[in-house]
Amino acid sequence: MTVQVSKSAATGDKVAVLDGPIFDPRAFRLNDEQASIIARARELGQTVFAGRAAAYDRDAVFPIENYRDLHRAGLLGISIPKKHGGLGADYQTYALAAAEIGRYCRADLEHARLLDIVVWSAGGRSRYGRRHPRGA
Question: Which of the two residues, 105 and 127, has the higher pLDDT score?
Fold first, then answer.
């Protein structure tokens, strides 16, 4: 069972027609919560990040405004356990949400991947709570 994705979103005085998902939620057997998180990422990417992407690429700057928006939308803690205030999403949900955001702003996708690499190389905990050996 999946959540119906809104086909439009209000952006100020305008209503934007939203793109469909890259990945069919049924094919990936997503539950309602997973589909909702991914849809939220896609909507934010299309309605907010897409308009900034060219400037970030042209000026080669860190997309700090996008990270503030991710925080406001609750998506910055996508893989943080719910008991610690995050969304508690699994790796599949994280990866599909990142792909949806990356289709509108590549800089965000690259920085998210960099953060994952830092956690792994520092011997941090994965999204599944297992400790990674340093440098793995």
Answer: 105
